[in-house]
Amino acid sequence: MSSNIALWNSFSKQYPQQDDASINKDAHYIIEWIESYGISFENYSLLDIGCGTGAFSIPLAQKKAHITALDISYDMLKIVHDKSVECDVGAFITLQHDSWSTFSRTQTFDIVLASMTPAISSTYDIDCMLQATKSLGIFVGWKRYENNTLLDLLLLAHNAPEHYSNRSVEVKEFLHTLEKASIAYNVHYFPTTWKRTYTYEEAKNYAYKQLLNHQIFPQEEKIDAILHDIMVDNRIVSENKSIKGVVLFSKCALLKEFSLVC
């Protein structure tokens, strides 16, 4: 676990933050879609699994949800804390430094959220998420991972299997688990594109971290060859394209429409 913590702490320096334009756009789009069902977050308890730098924790705290922001990385949580102070929502966010695998299962939350997080990477992780959910759950994942131009080149050069491009649970697997448990849900898919621009050293650092995260030993000569080949004006641009899915599910026994009243 300590190696995972160190890795995600290092990722925090380059991880998209809550005020990043592309992350902000996707988060607000998803929140608006959920609110279109008449759902209000105000005064409800919400667990944000693998909260990262607060892409959802901050805007949902601004809507007066009582957030437990869970992440394995102390550095990620430090960013959430600083953003919560900056946005004056610190009173609505409780930081929880823990992994999803060791987080206490004794507490349930009105709403449980997991978005694009490797914390949910198996059926067991999904089951634990369902157990923690009192009323409503929100899951955001890939419908189809299309490409990450830099990462795909790195994986190809290191002879990595194709499935290494995406290690988290896909939407279809999540839906299968809900159906087996007879849990009502709605799902919505949307395309998303975002870009990152790096200096050479930033890109090299990113390459090493990504390969290690995929449990691949980085080969420096291959990394250098790729970065030199795609560098323009001393900058390296990585473009990411995918189709995301957002799943809204309810554990209410009698469900005619999504509601927090069970």
Automatic annotation (TrEMBL):
GO MF annotations for this entry? Answer: methyltransferase activity
Checking Pfam families in the record gives:
Methyltransf_25
The EC designation for this entry is 2.1.1.301
What is this protein called in UniProt? Cypemycin N-terminal methyltransferase
Q: Which UniProt keywords apply?
A: Methyltransferase, Transferase
The EC class name is transferase
Q: Report the source organism.
A: Sulfurospirillum diekertiae
Q: Where is the Methyltransferase domain?
A: 47-127
Which SUPFAM superfamilies does the entry link to? S-adenosyl-L-methionine-dependent methyltransferases
Q: Which GO terms describe its biological process?
A: methylation
